[in-house]
Amino acid sequence: MRRVQKLFLFVVAITMIGISGIIGWLTFSPPDGLLSASAVAAKMVCSNVFIAKRDAASVIGSDVAFALPHVANRLKISVDPANQRVEVAFRGLFAKRDAQYEDGRGCTLVSKDEIPDRAAPPSRPAKPDALWPAGERVQLSEDKRLLAALNDPALQGPGMRAIVVVQDGRIVAETYGEGFSASTPLQGWSMTKTVNAALAGMAIKDGKLSLDRQNLFPQWAGDARADISVADLMAMTSGLKWSEAGDSPDPDGLENLAKDAAAFARDRPLVAPPGTKFNYAGGSSVLLARLWQNAVGADARAYPQERLFKPLGMTSAVLEADPSGTFLGEAFLFANAHDWVRFGEFLRLNGEWNGEQLLPAGFVDYMRSPVLVSEEGHGPVYGRGQLWLGPGQGFRLPADTFMMQGHLRQVIAIIPSRKLVILRMGLTREDIGYSTAKLLQAIAAASQKS
User: Fold this and answer.
1) Mean local confidence (pLDDT), 226-231
2) Helical segments of 349-436, H only
3) Given 8, 199, 317, 378, which is the most exposed site by the fewest CB atoms within 10 A?
4) Which H/E stretch holds residue 296?
């Protein structure tokens, strides 16, 4: 009997030691996977609640559950409206991450007791009661073909949140998913990359940056990375090691764990000579943002608002930054659908707005010029200004079609020959066979003037 009791006590002791070890591990050295999940949830809830003004429960039940299907129900997510802060912890105890909102600057991942610099928010002048793009009023088309394309659930795709069509400089059609409207800021994901490239172009126009500049960071001095140019970063041909797959064992996709995303991307090793290999990499966009910020200097924080968003009337636009202050130019621009298509129309007009050339003359043509090494079967798929080329992807659209595209089936298609801009945004899985191609083709066909 004593032997059984001793064995029982031994098993209990070993179990308690094991549990204590697991608790200690999760408390003091939680795995990157859990830290990343907490960070994603904190940032996502914070941005959608305090920028987009969405209901927290809806964001948690849709966006967070969608992004983190295997762990979302094990995360305790606490929203503090008074302090505009979100805290997330696994099982309410482990891998804690906090995100703090700052008016006009969006949400940033911070440490538990850290309070970010609360600079005065950027001014947002009221828009006149005028037709878009000067104001928000629209005069919608009654064309039956266009309306049929816009309102076809199969073309819209599951999780559609916004579709807007601009023809000849006016919004002619729009529709929104349940709970969303023309005023709801939406995350553009990788459509942000194209906006970031345009900001680099504005720094070029201001004489502060050049496409051929090399020796971009002191940390690259003396090694082959010194040969990487601004143009290489824009074309996704830097040669730096990077994996976009969030579930990859390669840690290069975990920049959300770093307080300085640019430093994380900067320190990747070189795996191909610059300019020789196409590799779609969010790290290149973050480095590009850091470069134009360095070039602009003290005015960099206000640069997106003052140089781009205000002139275009993009009053809802918020480009978020990491804790170091680097703008997250790879994915984290929020803007409502009307403002997103303002930027698309800006590109259609070759970087001119209200008679002012905001980008260097010819810069949009440069952005649209093909990266030849991005050939993937139909021709080059990527342009030199962090945008996609329709023909290279096999889209049956006019040959001059180019696109901004983002995670979860975000797209803005720009067709200069048709004076047409088409936006579709949503929360749509990318493994279910849905493509925006048929929607774009149907709208383009309906919008074609006889």
Assistant:
1) 98
2) 363-368
3) 8
4) helix 282-296
